[in-house]
Amino acid sequence: MARRSSEPAAAGTDSPVVAPARSSALVPLSAVEWDATTYHRVATPHLGWGQRVLARLPLRGDETVVDAGCGTGRLTAELLEKLPEGRVIAIDASTNMLRQAAAGLVPRFGDRVRFVRADLQTLALPEPVDAIFSTAAFHWVPDHPRLFRHLHAALVPGGRLVAQCGGGPNLAHLLERVAALMAAPASAPAFAGWAGPWEFADAATTAARLRAAGFVDVATDLEPAPTTFPDAATYGDFLSAVVLRSHLARLPDEAARAAFVGALTEQAARDDPPFGLDYWRLNLEGRRSSLAPGRG
């Protein structure tokens, strides 16, 4: 596939390893681009959560598995290690994330990993896959019923989805403070009419949506995952690069963004314990039926 100028090859390669999935609409780059270098440095909590999710995915070792929202590829590497005879399709909406993932993964795993830039809620793969694995990605997708329909269609009969994302009361304490700052006169114009970037669904709603999309053997639950950071600088970097990147992009300049994060960091410093985030994780699993249509 020819590479368009807006879809650069990964760093250190001469051929395009970042390509759009067939018939999968690409969202505007400005809406999805991440600071992959900072994310890779600060997103340590996501690695621990993801390792526990990966442990729930049953694998023989020869399957083709999608890593849906692969980020910088740290968990993709652990997935590939569980697939010595298999391969991974690493999907993300961010070219920066895919470039960083490719730089780390291609030297180790060669052509057993392929990189696709795509919007998960319109994903369409050339061939179905054996499993889909995802962590810390689905809450960035606004339309979960549509997402689950496309993921179901991407699986072979009997194929399994094992994932985790933010859900339920995720970050409720932080978001109260964020809402107050958004409503302040200096910030309000930037956020007028904006619904926010996330879908934090509860377990029951997610189970119903998975079943409506065609999944069987559905299981969902919420678990608390409170996370504390060692100091103000780390906390502020995490807010900027991970949690509030969409919020900060709406502010007019760097001074406004620094003031926004600084106010939240000052409040967090007075908490007990300081610099904590009230994370909740939504675990979800399902399987595409092994039966042919009309057979049950």
Concise synopsis of the structure shown:
The chain is an alpha/beta fold and 296 residues long. The chain has 12 helices and 10 strands.
Question: Features of this protein?
Answer:
single chain; 296 residues; alpha/beta; Rossmann fold; 2 domains; eight-stranded mixed beta sheet; two-stranded antiparallel ribbon; 12 helices; 21% strand; disordered N terminus
Structural notes for this entry:
The chain has 296 residues and is an alpha/beta fold. The chain folds into 2 domains: 1-167 and 202-226 and 279-296, Vaccinia Virus protein VP39 (Rossmann fold, 3-Layer(aba) Sandwich), CATH 3.40.50; 171-196 and 229-277. Helix content is 39%, strand content 21%. It has 12 helices and 10 strands. The chain has helices spanning 29-32, 36-42, 44-54, 74-81, 95-109, 144-153, 172-183, 188-191, 203-212, 232-243, 245-249, 254-269; strands at residues 18-20, 64-68, 87-92, 113-117, 129-135, 155-166, 215-224, 227-228, 276-277, 280-288. The strands form 2 sheets. It has an 8-stranded mixed beta sheet with strand order 1-4-3-2-5-6-10-7, sandwiched between helices. A two-stranded antiparallel ribbon has the order 8-9. Helix 3 runs parallel beside helix 4, helix 6 (144-153) packs across helix 9 (203-212) and helix 10 packs across helix 12 (254-269). The chain is globular. It starts with 17 loop residues before the first strand and ends in an 8-residue tail after the last strand. Mean pLDDT is 90; it is low at 1-17 and 22-30.
